Amino acid sequence: MSGSATQTVYEQLRASLLAGLYRPEEKLKISELGSAFSVSTGAIREALARLTAEGLVTATPQRGFRVAPVSVADLRDLTDMRVEIETKCLRRAIANGDLAWETTVVAAHHRLTGTPIAAHDGSFSPAWMLAHADFHAALAQACGSAWMMRVRDLLFAHNERYLDLARKTDRGNRDAAREHRELMEAALARDTERAVMLMTAHLDKTRDTIEAALLAATAMNEAN
Amino acid sequence: MSGSATQTVYEQLRASLLAGLYRPEEKLKISELGSAFSVSTGAIREALARLTAEGLVTATPQRGFRVAPVSVADLRDLTDMRVEIETKCLRRAIANGDLAWETTVVAAHHRLTGTPIAAHDGSFSPAWMLAHADFHAALAQACGSAWMMRVRDLLFAHNERYLDLARKTDRGNRDAAREHRELMEAALARDTERAVMLMTAHLDKTRDTIEAALLAATAMNEAN
DNA sequence: TGCGCAATTAAAATATATTTTTTAATAAAA
DNA sequence: TTTTATTAAAAAATATATTTTAATTGCGCA
């Protein structure tokens, strides 16, 4: 498919990172990854270099690569920024969006609705994560700014890394489906202020849920 | 100096890119760069991979790397985004900034004032570019958000690439020094609205100047 | 028994070599 | 003259080998 090996490694590694397959601050050994993906170390290094620039992994000279750390402080900061950007995108999308935009939003929402949220092990299913990402991207798309989308995508990706952590404590006591539906309805009704309000609430609620999970996990680690 | 060769190459290549040493869309040949820096191709590829993630170069599988293209549309989009982020940073910096912040701003401004703007060949002098970048960074620093600074830095870097293009048509008919001084004064006086206004005007003016230069360059190319 | 130091191991960083793919150049056919 | 094959050159991608650096272990000694 995607011709080059380094490209494939990059994509797969990124997906694994976002899916929380590796723990934060875990060491990413070049040769281990090399044999796991059965490619040369050069390809791995190249993929890790790109992920470093994205902030998903950290590089320390002479000491290799690690999964980027997570923290409550970072999550809060990230969410603040996300609220700023996502609402700005949303405002502009509602102002600019045409029928094609409405159509992709409706389609993405329908797919999201029809995708089971949980995998067998209790985490988010990869299919749902993808549908969820596509839905939010579809909403923002019509903002008409490549840079805004670029920044939005970066922030969204980082948030996905936190999302898995939330699943454990978020046992159905949150009606995410309803939030998404209301968000879509407000956007399609061109009710800008309501849509912005719902988006802000959605992101803040996500942050709170994740934060609770993070603190619980920290407390558990300290108990050991 | 900075331990690893790949790190050095990355930094130098990035600086050259921002200084406009390579033309947009110019091919970046791995082995050429390798011999130029006298390092292995692996180090070059790694540096280029990071720059790709930053958007300063583009990578096409099986076909190598190129300097990222420039366009009027991108410049406008970039500036819009920059106005959003820079003013947001500025507002928060003015609200949060303490004496230490004021001090670094004053220091950065003094250095900027004392640095000759032009190099012998008429382009911006590297020292001025650095002082200029530091001044704007100093202003924003006290915003207290790592993510906001991260995005700001990314956008600023991309703008630097355009800046060189402007120099040719910007023969002293712009009083950048005054703009910077007024900006600093408003910030230190905690006059938020005036500072935001000045920042917006500063960035918009920069865009207009660059845009004129870009269009002139395009017209010249078409004549050939 | 605890501590510092040398020897060993592991892993990262770098260089070189090989393979594969693309680009270009040239020649043959319409 | 234009188009299409064929081939040669260049460059990218990948793999392997070497060097350098950091971490670990075991040993002597206080």
Radius of gyration of chain A over all CA atoms, rounded: 18 Å
Oligomer: homodimer
Backbone shape of chain A: globular
Whole-number average pLDDT of chain A? 93
Biggest interface, chains and residues, is: A-B, 33 and 33 residues
The first-to-last residue Cα distance of chain A is 45 Å
How many distinct helices of chain A? Answer: 9
Quantity of strands of chain A, as a count: 3
- Physical arrangement of strands within the biggest beta sheet of chain A: 1-3-2
Strand content of chain A: under 5%
Structural class of chain A: mainly alpha
Low-confidence segments of chain A, given as residue ranges, are none
Order of helices and strands of chain A: HEHHEEHHHHHH
The helix content of chain A is over 70%
Can you tell me about this structure?
By secondary structure, chain A is mainly alpha-helical. In chain A, 71% of the residues lie in helices and 4% in strands. Chain A contains nine helices and three strands. The first copy, chain A, has helices at 5-18, 30-37, 41-54, 72-96, 99-113, 126-141, 146-167, 176-188, 192-223; strands spanning 27-28, 57-60, 64-67. A three-stranded antiparallel sheet of chain A has the order 1-3-2. In chain A, strand 2 (57-60) and strand 3 form a beta hairpin. In chain A, helix 5 (99-113) runs antiparallel to helix 6 (126-141). Chain A is globular. The N and C termini of chain A lie far apart (45 Å). The mean pLDDT of chain A is 93. Chains A and B meet through helix 3, helix 4 and helix 7 of A and helix 3, helix 4 and helix 7 of B. The structure holds a DNA duplex (30 and 30 nucleotides).
